[in-house]
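README, section 4: Worked example with a bound small molecule

Sections 1 through 3 covered apo chains. Here we extend the same pipeline to holo records, where the ligand is supplied as SMILES alongside the sequence. The molecule in this example is flavin-adenine dinucleotide. Nothing else about the input changes; the structure line simply encodes the ligand pose together with the chain.
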Amino acid sequence: MYDFTIIGGGIIGLSTAYSLKKAYPRAKISVMEKESTLASHQTGRNSGVIHSGVYYKPGSLKARMAKQGSASMVEFCKEHGIDHDVCGKVLVATHEEELPRMDALYERVQQNKINVTKIGREGLLEIEPHVNGLAALKVPTTGIVNYKQVTEKLASLITEAGVDLFLDTKVKNIEEVKEEVVIDTNRGSFKTGFLINCAGLHSDRLVEMAHIHTDIKIVPFRGEYFTLADEKRHLVKGLIYPIPNPAFPFLGVHLTRMIDGSVHAGPNAVLSLKREGYHKTAFSPKDTFDVLTYPGFWKMAGANLQEGWKEMVRSFHKKTFVKSLQRLVPDIQPDDVIPAKAGVRAQAMLKDGRLVDDFQIIPGKRSIHVCNAPSPAATASLEIGKEIVKQIPVPRQIKVG
Ligand SMILES: Cc1cc2nc3c(=O)[nH]c(=O)nc-3n(C[C@H](O)[C@H](O)[C@H](O)COP(=O)(O)OP(=O)(O)OC[C@H]3O[C@@H](n4cnc5c(N)ncnc54)[C@H](O)[C@@H]3O)c2cc1C
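The generated complex, written as structure tokens:
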């Protein structure tokens, strides 16, 4: 019998196990992951950016945790010798009409108390000589890292501290009974005092298994990337982002130097017909049925037809994708980019069609469920782990144990 069991071997599950073990060194803790390797899904398929918290609504969990989380992520990397680089980023206004949006973003950044400076065209060209821009916001605290490496380090720290890590272990049913939670998996049943659901793209299904009623459905949005040919990498020095449209903050492809030196372009955002579907043709009847029969999906789709269509075109038509990149760096040509591995975002949606904006952590009786942890959750992961530990009502015997 475990004191705590965490479902999900992504960065949120591992950060939570790390925080729990620190808070309760003598507790018996297990982590269950259905794949044979850690970080197989969102954590291993993202842009690798340590976000500073520029975009997020002041007072939100995202704003607070991105700011604290970027600092704790950099600290963690330094302490454990993980390659990272606080290279800074520029958010570039390429057209006149983006200047008021840039100013509005600058105001928000002031409210979030993040160190950002406005720079003109000349200042921008000193940082990114190949960018086409009228002005920009320079964010010096943004960085890059490989989150899979962070997750693997967390795994080695927790297993050394005595946490049991089960790979190839898929949770199939959860039963909260009087004094414990019974978890059925493909490798038999386990008992635990408390369960923490960090199952990313499947988190809503685990909530249902635990018989907790929520209004939430995970809708998978694939983010497709290109990588810049080696001989064109010099066109991008660090991180080049567009000024986001506040109505669609997660849209807008950017150029990202990765920690291995490669340069990624993307991601776009297209509905995926499979939760773990990394190719354009990926299809799961169950996942598709789930989305198409959810009333919220049709409300969201109806309200965002134009943007949705643009993203689809960008997905199937390389030249259109490259055009969005040329807005930022005009010298990039279609032959300079090669398709790279995609990721799928686990975005929670409500029945009325709204996308859940902030991180969402839902308590059960003997469980806690991380139901919305999209970007910047990798940045914020160490803080999310600490927050979950704070929210767990720990039985007395563990506190003193
Ligand atoms: C395209 C893209 C770009 C992004 N860019 C950034 C970025 O630059 N910076 C940033 O901070 N964030 C970024 N993010 C967000 C970030 O990657 C995620 O917020 C973070 O990885 C979420 O971690 P997780 O542990 O919740 O999910 P995951 O990494 O998806 O882990 C969940 C795990 O649960 C397991 N699981 C599911 N169901 C079961 C089950 N029944 N039994 C056992 N195991 C199960 C899965 O196999 C999976 O390994 C990006 C995301 C995407 C998709």
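What to look for in the output: Residues 217 and 229 are 38 Å apart (CA to CA). Residues 61-80 form the longest helix (20 residues).

Section 5 describes how to batch many such records.
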